[in-house]
Structures are given as structure tokens and as C-alpha cells.
Amino acid sequence: RAYSYSWANFSDGRLKTNIGTISNALDMVKSMRGVTYDWKTNEATRAEAIKNADPVYISEPDKKAEKLQSQVGFIAQEIQNILPSAVSQIEEKDSTGAIIGTTLGVDYTSVIPVLVEAIKEQQKQIDELRALLGASTSGTPVQQTNYNTPPAGANSMSAGKTNSTNLSVKDAVKLLEDNLSFMTKEHQEQMKDFINEIKKSDKLNSEQLNKVLEFRNNIKEFQKNNQ
User: Fold this and answer.
1) What CA–CA distance (Å, rounded) separates 196 from 208?
2) pLDDT digits (tens, 9 = 90+) for 146-191
3) Are 103 and 47 in contact (CB under 8 A)?
4) Cα Rg for the chain, rounded, in angstroms?
5) Rounded to whole angstroms, how far apart are CA atoms 220 and 227?
6) Rounded to an integer, what is the distance from CA 22 to the centroid of its chain?
7) Cα–Cα distances in Å, from 146 out to 1, 42, 47, 136, 167?
8) CA-to-CA distance for 205 and 194, rounded, in angstroms?
9) For residue range 73-124, what is the model confidence (pLDDT) as tens digits?
10) Spatial distance between the Cα atoms of 156 and 175, rounded to a whole number of angstroms
11) What DSSP string runs through 154-213?
């Protein structure tokens, strides 16, 4: 008979109080910096700490070099400023067990809930933008009105005394190309075809102009809703 075990942290809701959803998770993640690094090998305290914490280091000395090779992770001091609860002090001991100092450690599993909420926040923004661009998951385009009167200051094209009806092909192409990354892949292909179409013209016709103005209004509305 064989058994299999895995590590798990207590997470039963019955053991918890003051439960709340993590807010501003996306901003927290944007402030985090993933790094590559090498452990310092010329410090006796660091080598001693690794040896004490890692049985493989002791039982398989030939893996010492492998353990000290380039790693990926966080810098504890940076995470401490963003998510203090994920950082703790670790005592470093010499071979006799005497404490010779402390270093900071990161509980990487504590970062996971923040990542989950950040992804959800970002997906909400993506869904809102897709809907505003007429590319919602339902496939139903969002109806827009008043295309010929975009909000003042929507972007550099409508600033000052520029008349929307005099929108140049060059400016229209720039607006569309600058915002392709916000679209779904399918919608990108459709927009690229439209861009190629208007590039062949010296001036936007009324149908093309309305489509560009609709797009510009959608972008402005999305920016307004996510300020």
C-alpha cells in the first residue's frame, strides 16, 4: 500500500475573521519586480545559512555549485514595501547553532492571492475595453451614437480648433494603429484591413470617418471609466 502526501496551509474559513477581498491588487503587482540573481559565494554566513537550511547541500556536496547558480525571485526589501505580511526575518546560525545574524525572507505563497485578484482586475478592464470596441465575448457590437461630436479633448486630434470632419487619413491611421494592442486578435485583423483600406484614400469618406470617430469615442469612454 502506498500513500502520497502534499503540503497544505490551514485555510478553513471557519478559522478566519475580518475576511475581505484584496483591493488595488493590480497596482501592487505592477510595483513588484521579478529579478534574476546569483547568491553571493564569498560570504561565510551566506554559505552557512544555505547549508543549514538545505539537506541536499550536506548530503550531496557536488550539488553545491548548482544550488548557488542563477535564480529567479524577488528582493525581500522591495516586497516589504508593497506586501509586508509576506516578508519575515530569518535567523542565520553558524555550525554550532549560535545566531550570527538575521536576513529577510519572502513567503512566495502569500503573493499568490494578490496575483489572483490582479488578474481578475485586469480581465475586467480587458472585458470593458472589448465591449467598448464592439468586440464583446457575446459578439454583439456596442451601439454608439453621436459619432460626429466626440468629447472635447478625447485625444490630440480633437484638441484646439481641429474640426472632426477634417480628420486626416494620417491621423486616423495613427489612432487606430496605436490602439491595436487593446483589441482581440480577431478584431485586430478586421481593423488592419480597415487601416489598409483608408491608407489608399486621400480623404476619409463619411462611412470611414464615422467608424474612426466611433472608435475614438470608445477609447475615450474606456479611459474615463478607468481613471
Assistant:
1) 12
2) 333 333 333 433 333 334 557 889 888 988 888 887 777 777 888 8
3) no
4) 28
5) 11
6) 16
7) 73, 69, 69, 21, 16
8) 13
9) 999 999 999 999 999 998 877 778 888 888 899 999 999 999 999 999 999 8
10) 10
11) SSGGGSTT--GGG--HHHHHHHHHHTGGGS-HHHHHHHHHHHHHHHT-SS--HHHHHHHH
Please return the burial class of 150, using the count of CB atoms within 10 Å of its CB with bins 0-12, 13-18 and 19+: buried
Angle at 206 between CA 204 and CA 209, to 5 degrees: 55
Q: What is the DSSP letter of 138?
A: T
- Give the type of residue at 72: V
Q: Can you read off the three cell numbers belonging to residue 64?
A: 553545491
Residue 79, C-alpha cell as written in the block: 516586497
Q: Which residues contact 58 (CB under 8 A, 6 or more apart)?
A: 51
- Residue type present at position 185: K
